[in-house]
Amino acid sequence: MDSPVSLQQHLAAIVEGSDDAIVTKGLDSIIQTWNPGAERLFGYSAEEAIGQPITMLFPDERKDEEADFIARLRRGEQIAHFETIRKRKDGTLVPISLTVSPVRGIDGNVIGASKIARDITLQREAAQQQRLLLSEMHHRVGNSFAVAGGLLSIAARKANTVQELVTVVRQRLHALARVHSQALTDPTGAQPEGANLANLFSAILQPFTGDLKMRMEFPEITVCPSAITPLSLVIFELATNAVKYGGLSEDGNGISIYAKHLGDRLIIRWQESCATKPASGEPDRVGFGTRMSQSAVSSSLGGTFCRDFDLGGMTATLDLDLAAVTGAAATTAGEGSRTV
User: Do 141 and 207 belong to one domain?
Assistant: First the structure.
């Protein structure tokens, strides 16, 4: 008959099987035990870690934390869910949530501490992504109101009746909806076909410009479905700022947009002629809209986004990977262009 498992054996099994790093140390900060979870998290084997100071895991700027831990442990305090940074064997940093509890001897005095460390990299990334999504949502909602306001203002200049105004606004909203539908899979599962580059710009800019003539020159390119949304975000951002502050504002003189092949790159230049300035009012300051545009272009279109200001106006340059825009190998530079 098997002998009963002791409480100590139960606890040892829990420590050995834990995904978290569980470490004990003395009040001299020397590591005494080191479980497999600690090996996985920090990269040191038990043989390498035991007998070493726990501060070998601390980045230089965090070493003062240990003195505070020891002082609090001597007072019998527990430190729960303390978020900090530690250093792995390979030198990389990892965010952790740390719980530190005092270990007492048979006389009740504190003789050391047990530490449980949990990798919170995924939680940190999820929180950061949530903050970015909320910021983008806030920005997109603001832009949507700007789009609607610009659309109404432009349509109202030409409409003679309320019904005519409603009709024009509805048509332009539908035009924008069609742009976005070109990037979506329909309910039957059919894959979207993409959009002509010139048509994409025209459809997005229509609510901002109405019937105003703009100079636009594009090569014959079909934008693949995966590139439509990030490129649309950048166009919306530029157009919104042009209506508020730049070439499409009351003081502006319109916009010109040119695109051309350069090898395997697609270069798009958006030029506004007016005494323009950044939305922030400070040329060196990078606002959320610019960061969003840079992120969309970098992550989805394999390129860069920048804006340059001078006394004559503003030029935004998109340097894009042609293959990322078209979803296919780059074609020969200079093939056909289209003026709008």
Answer: yes
d(CA 152, CA 169): 7
Are residues 44 and 93 part of one domain? yes
CATH number for the domain harbouring residue 185:
3.30.565.10
Q: How far apart are CA 81 and CA 74, in angstroms?
A: 19
pLDDT reading at 92 higher than 90:
yes
Indicate if 91 and 219 belong to the same structural domain: no
Q: Would you state the pLDDT for residue 330?
A: 40
**Segment among 52-61, 74-83, 119-128, 161-170 with least mean pLDDT:** 161-170
% of the chain beyond a pLDDT of 70: 71
